Amino acid sequence: MARLTIHYNGMTRVIEFEGQKRLDDILISNGMRSPHPCGGMGRCGKCRVELKGAVSQPDKVEARFGARLSCRAIILGDVEVTVLTDGAPKIETATSNAVLKSPMAGNYGAAVDIGTTTIAAKVFDLAKGECIATGAVLNPQISVAADVIGRMDAAQNGRADELKDMVRQAVEDLLAGLTDKIIESAVVTDNYS
What we know:
Blueprint: E1 2-8, E2 11-17, E3 21-22, H1 23-29, E4 48-55, H2 60-65, E5 68-69, E6 74-83, E7 108-114, E8 118-125, E9 130-138, H3 148-178, E10 185-190
Parallel strand pairs: 1-6, 7-10
Antiparallel strand pairs: 1-2, 3-6, 4-5, 4-6, 7-8, 8-9
């Protein structure tokens, strides 16, 4: 059993695995996603990592970027990896204090916008018609492809359920982080329809 020690967003985690695996496959299966605007094809270089230990030699693609890429590196045994990030994303979540004129039924509701890059949500006190919380997260589907066309291609090639699950979990986590109230009504918009 090999050990992969991962330094990711200020945390350290150790994962045991068997066999030789692509680093991305290990990271993704353990809930750690690095950006892949090119869909993990080794074209963008956004999934740079620092590696120490039993790992494959850099290939021609990695040599072109002058860095190890999680979508290309094969883990052969015990390895230490630092997932490089450019810091926390800056996502605009400002909202007006306008009161809703015709609130939905129930006590609390949410408005969710599923965008290509971000998922934004607002939680409303429906009795008062006021926004009580707002927040946003990066759309985790960006780890599969940066654009809608790339995601459609991934969906057509057997990854549709994975893509749906990513968004569903992100929305659930976002709303749970915004309020402990029970959301009884919701409006969801997207740019995929």
